[in-house]
Amino acid sequence: MSVRALWIISHEKGENVSIRFSRRFSTVEHRAKRLAGSSYVAVPEESTVLQLLLTELGLSNSDKSYVALRDDCLHRQRSPALELRVDGPGKGTLWPVLAISQGPLILACLSLVDVPPEPRPPLANLLSVSQGLTFLEGLQTFLLGSGSKPDGEGLVSRLAMLPSVLLQVCPLGTPLDVPVLGAPATPTMPTPAGNQKQPAWKTGLHRGRAVVNVALIETVRSMQYGNYSRQDLWDVFGTVTCKCEVEGVLPNVTVTLTLPPNGSPLQDILVHPCVTSLDSSILTASSVDNYDGSAFSGPYKFPFSPPLEPFRLCSYTSQVPVPPILGSYQLKEEENQLRVLVTLKLHESVKNSFEYCEAHLPFFNRDQMGVVDMKVSSGQLDVSKEKNLLVWTLGQKFPKSREVTMEGRITFSGPAPGPTDPLCTELTAYLKLYFKVPDMTLSGCCVDQHSVQVYSSAKPRIVTSRELQSKEYFIWNSTGTAPVSSGQVML
Q1: Is the pTM of this model over 0.70?
Q2: Which residue in 150, 185, 339, 378 has the fewest CB atoms around it within 10 Å?
Q3: How many structural domains compose the chain?
Q4: pLDDT tens across 52-69, in order?
Q5: How far apart are CA 15 and CA 7, in angstroms?
Q6: Per the domain annotation, does 226 fall within a domain?
Q7: Is 297 part of any domain?
Q8: Which domain holds residue 252?
Q9: Do 191 and 183 meet the contact criterion of CB atoms below 8 Å apart?
Q10: What is the distance, to the nearest Å, from the Cα of residue 291 to the centroid of all Cα atoms in its chain?
């Protein structure tokens, strides 16, 4: 595995986006040119790479609601192996450009693919992709430390050290301690965990008490219309991530997921390749099939030999009877003002303890906001007249009634036009919810701390957590038109 180019980009909020560090490896580029032949595409200038990468990640032109290269329905983002389409004399496609983002940094590299570019090989067959991502994660740990945002001086000093670090861990563009060229992508027999060698780009072996961390995160999406002619949609997607920090030999581990007695079986389960054995009935439940009540309902046991880096153990979907927050949104236009009525009700099965909960109400294709006369039964309302946006901060709890309302009028008589959106014209409008509920999942799925088995004499500390968070949680104005999907919300 070799790297043609490496970029480290700063994109901290409120600051100019810029490339903080870049490195090109001419020997690897010479090999890429020889392998590609007439289809070779050179790496463009840094400014061009920056613009193409930000566009592909959806971070460019944030003030524009539609950018064809970013938002066209025919364009499919293939994260984390991105395509950068280069125009000009050396036009073509750079692939695979690997990118990861955390805190204020984006780390990206262009891996060398030692096979013909056409037909394009599947990502699962390319060692350079998984090794490139592991390399970026190691550099990310080196730059950011254990947290996601170090102090500015610490980041500057680490960036200054990076050239000498790369000479040690990635000489001539080839990271050390990776499988030799031609090694099979999957070994014929499971490799014992204790034989795994610490890569040179890792910041060091774990010291101190062993820790096994298991985090379960469920994400809920919803489209609610408040209209009997349109069916409300919602879906739940869950992931279980693991991180094993053990000094010396990595142990074998078994993680068990359990459901409440009345819980719906997990569906569409996908597991990491490190899982050593699995009951085949776990994988049979699918969301595209009609549920007949006979699906496996747990407990779900996942024995595995953990890799060195944090990883996603498994993912799943779940069918739940109701969304966590039911909403109603009504707009009525009266001359040059809108009458707004919003009701949000927290379902009784959801824990009334939020890390945060906000409702955003944008108003597009109108003049700038003038007078805003709104009342809320709970929380705090912030008004951004420049953005034509209301932000309703509900805080950490709903009231005892579990129901909140917002009502009032808004006039649009500002000196300049507000933001535009090709979809939200006339009374087509939405409310978007952002929330996170710690120590809860909508499906009821959990990882019991005592059910995690670690086959090691080190007696590691077991840390488990779970949380529910929203993603693309929309409540549409019931008095206007709204986009309607004929199927499930796809995650």
Answers
A1: no
A2: 185
A3: 3
A4: 998 888 777 655 666 666
A5: 18
A6: no
A7: yes
A8: 211-220+231-321+446-459
A9: no
A10: 29
